[in-house]
Each structure stands twice: as structure tokens, then as C-alpha cells.
């Protein structure tokens, strides 16, 4: 069989993982990324056991572990700082075979790019359209010309050009009802021993450990979509969360003033299919979800491994993509819905509803919380071990 070719549109986590998975199976792959460099800035990422299994299938789990931090315990706190629930990473590993690893997104992107041949990575390549032609291989139009290949993978995010071109009737992303801030502190002399998410009323704040004493922090607030940014998002955050329990004020004080990222959060309504002919959508382009379960990148990694598995050993690309769609669409759309429900719960602002929510969280045993995550975290890579 002649060497098959793939063009991946988008050089984020999902696109690079798909390129690695196909490269390991003998495909010649090019990755088109519109940004001038393959990198990410200013944010951390949580890799749950299912993501680490996907990385194991890519041969990168040990590499990623060395770049990240494994928190001993974490959990959920209320607005007064009281613990509502706690999770032991040892128990998470015992139940699911893998820990929770937190690292900087830029470190993960670097590990992924280093696993690919440099001549297949094409930064500064803005894609304008994808054409499907009867009986011919699909064509990707981009700023450097055109690429024709056996397979096109749309991994170009929430506002996917591939999806907009070939799925013109797809619904637009929907605003989740709240905006989010992400930031990384400077190294702290005494970082918090435990990570946590704190639920307020229409607001949340979370923090978790990165290597070298840094902390990754995130916050949310219920605001109308498109609310204008302030002159200093850092100053606005410090004012908004000034009275929150320790260590929130201290963490915000340790964030550089220019290091706060803010984005309104959107989710993608369910698509009727992730594939069309020899074109497949992957990651946020297929199933953008809110970050409440920490599963956006994790599901993109699952997508990548599953797609390569479906394509392996069969010359029928179209049939393989149908198998990929059947394997991934129901799962990712269910997780998208679950994440949206958790986000709505976390953003409750009516005091009686927030009190009921917090009480229910406090009364739920840790084992029940972990067991409820089995449909998400218990995923096994096709053909792999648990």
C-alpha cells in the first residue's frame, strides 16, 4: 500500500496528537497552524487518567509526567473556605490506574511538537477553505497555496474554518452564560499544599499546583456575552475576589499584571456527524465544551488515538471515518452536556439554590463522586491496556 497522506488543520493539542498518532502508523502528515509558532501562553492544563492513557498510546505519557505536577489532594470549597468535598490522588490512581497531572500548556505543546518531524509542521499557514471533489482527494486552501491529501482533519478549534466550510448548516457556538479568566502565578515560596475550586454565587475561583512553585489559577463570573474588558483585568480580578478566603487574594497578588487571559466561554451544539467524506473534525472543532470537567483537551487526545486506530489497517478511509464518528460522537456529546450541567450548578447565584448545592456536595461521599466519574475517566484506548 502506498504511503497515505493527511493534512491536519490546527496545531493545538488535538491536531498535534492526531498527527503523532498517524505518523506512528506510517502516514505522512503535515500540520497547518495559522499562528507564527506552535505554542500556548499563560495557562495550565489538567490531564486526567483517560488523557494519560491516550498519551501512553502515543508513547508520551512518561515524558508528560516529568513536565507536570501530581497534587496529593484537592477538592471543592464553599465561599467561606470550608471544604465541601476532597479527592485523594492516590485513590484516583487506585480506581483508574492513573493520577491527575497538571502542567503548563506550553510544555505539553512542546512535547507534542518534538514528537513530529519538523518538516511537517507549517506555522503561519492560515487556512481559508476545504474543498471536497467527487472522486478526488480533498484540498485545503491556505496562505501558502493548496494541500491535497488522502485525509483532512479539522482540529482548528471553536471557530473552525473546516467546520464552517463543510458543515455550513451547523449551529453556531452558544455562550455558556459566564466568562473565564486564566493565569499562572510567579513561583511561590510556600505554595498551597492542596488545590481547590471554590464555589461562590455566580462566581468561582480555582487553583492547582504547577511545577517549580507556580500555581495555575482560573476564575469565572456570570456576565452578559461580550462584556467589554476592563483597562486592567488583573486589577478587576483582585477587586472582585478581594474578600474571598485564603489563599485567593495572595495568589492573585502573585500573578503578573499582564498575565491574565480572559475569554467568554462557549459550547458547540451537537453536530449530526463528525465526518464528511474524507474529512474528520476533532477536538473543539467537533465538540467544544465548557471546562468544568477539565475534559476539553482530554477528549481531543482520545479523539486522536481513536481516529488513528480506526484508520489503521484499512484502505477504506471513508468507512474508517464512519467508525470514528460512531465511536466518538455519542461519548463527547454526552460529556459536553455533563460539563454544561456542572457549570450551571457552579454558577448558581440565588442564595437558597447555592446553599442547597453546597449542602448536597458536602453530604456526597468521596467514593460516590469518584464512581460517578467512571464513564468519563474509565476510557481505555482502542487496543490498549487500562
Structure description:
The structure is a single chain. The protein is α/β, with parallel strands linked by helices. It has one domain: FAD/NAD(P)-binding domain (3-Layer(bba) Sandwich). It is 36% helix and 24% strand. Helix 1 (13-24) runs parallel beside helix 5 (105-114).
> How many discrete structural domains?
1
The total beta strand count reads 19
Helix content: 25-40%
For the record, what is the CATH homologous superfamily label?
FAD/NAD(P)-binding domain
Task: Itemize the secondary structure elements and their pairings.
Layout (H helix, E strand, L loop, with lengths): L4 E5 L3 H12 L3 E6 L10 E4 L1 H9 L3 H7 L1 E2 L2 E5 L5 E6 H8 L4 E4 H10 L6 E3 L3 E5 L7 E4 L2 E4 L2 E4 L6 H6 L7 E11 L11 E4 L3 E7 L5 E7 L11 H8 L7 H6 L7 E7 L7 E2 L2 E3 L2 H4 L8 H16 L5 H30 L4 H13 L2 H7 L1 H4 L9
Parallel strand pairs: 1-2, 1-12, 2-8, 5-14, 12-19
Antiparallel strand pairs: 3-7, 4-7, 5-6, 9-10, 10-11, 13-16, 13-17, 14-15, 15-16, 18-19
Helix pairs in contact: 1-5, 1-10, 2-10, 10-11
Output the keywords.
FAD/NAD(P)-binding domain, alpha/beta, 24% strand, six-stranded mixed beta sheet, 386 residues
Amino acid at each position: 500500500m502506498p504511503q497515505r497522506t493527511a493534512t491536519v488543520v490546527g496545531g493545538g493539542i488535538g491536531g498535534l496528537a492526531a498527527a503523532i498518532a498517524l505518523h506512528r502508523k506510517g502516514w505522512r502528515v503535515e500540520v497547518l497552524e495559522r499562528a507564527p509558532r506552535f505554542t500556548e501562553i499563560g495557562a495550565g492544563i489538567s490531564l486526567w487518567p483517560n488523557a494519560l492513557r491516550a498519551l501512553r498510546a502515543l508513547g508520551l505519557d512518561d515524558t508528560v509526567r516529568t513536565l507536570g505536577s501530581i497534587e496529593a489532594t484537592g477538592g471543592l470549597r464553599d465561599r467561606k473556605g470550608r471544604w465541601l468535598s476532597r479527592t485523594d490522588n492516590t485513590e484516583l490512581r487506585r480506581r483508574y490506574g492513573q493520577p491527575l497531572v497538571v502542567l503548563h500548556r506550553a510544555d505539553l505543546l512542546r512535547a507534542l511538537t518534538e514528537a513530529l518531524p519538523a518538516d511537517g509542521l507549517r506555522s503561519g499557514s492560515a487556512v481559508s477553505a476545504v474543498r471536497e471533489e467527487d472522486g478526488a482527494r480533498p484540498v485545503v486552501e491556505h496562505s501558502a497555496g493548496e494541500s491535497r491529501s488522502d485525509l483532512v482533519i479539522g482540529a482548528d478549534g471553536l471557530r473552525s474554518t473546516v467546520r464552517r466550510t463543510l458543515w455550513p448548516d451547523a449551529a453556531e457556538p452558544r455562550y455558556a452564560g459566564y466568562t473565564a479568566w486564566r493565569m499562572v502565578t510567579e513561583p511561590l515560596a510556600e505554595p498551597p499544599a492542596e488545590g481547590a475550586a471554590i464555589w461562590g454565587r455566580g462566581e468561582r475561583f480555582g487553583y492547582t499546583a504547577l511545577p517549580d512553585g507556580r500555581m495555575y489559577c482560573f476564575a469565572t463570573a456570570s456576565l452578559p456575552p461580550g462584556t467589554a474588558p476592563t483597562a486592567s483585568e488583573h486589577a478587576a480580578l483582585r477587586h472582585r475576589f478581594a474578600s474571598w478566603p485564603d489563599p485567593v487574594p495572595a495568589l492573585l497578588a502573585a500573578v503578573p499584571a499582564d498575565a491574565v487571559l480572559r475569554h467568554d466561554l462557549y459550547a458547540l451544539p451537537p453536530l449530526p456527524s463528525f465526518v464528511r467524506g474524507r474529512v474528520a473534525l476533532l477536538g473543539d472543532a467537533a465538540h467544544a465544551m465548557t471546562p468544568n470537567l477539565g475534559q476539553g483537551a482530554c477528549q481531543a487526545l482520545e479523539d486522536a488515538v481513536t481516529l488513528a486506530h480506526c484508520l489503521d489497517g484499512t484502505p477504506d478511509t471513508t468507512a474508517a471515518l464512519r467508525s470514528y464518528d460512531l465511536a466518538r460522537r455519542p461519548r463527547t456529546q454526552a460529556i459536553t452536556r455533563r460539563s454544561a450541567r456542572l457549570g450551571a450548578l457552579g454558577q448558581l447565584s440565588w442564595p437558597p439554590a447555592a446553599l442547597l448545592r453546597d449542602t448536597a456536595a458536602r453530604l456526597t461521599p468521596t467514593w460516590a463522586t469518584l464512581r460517578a466519574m467512571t464513564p468519563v475517566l474509565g476510557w481505555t484506548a482502542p487496543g490498549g491496556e487500562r
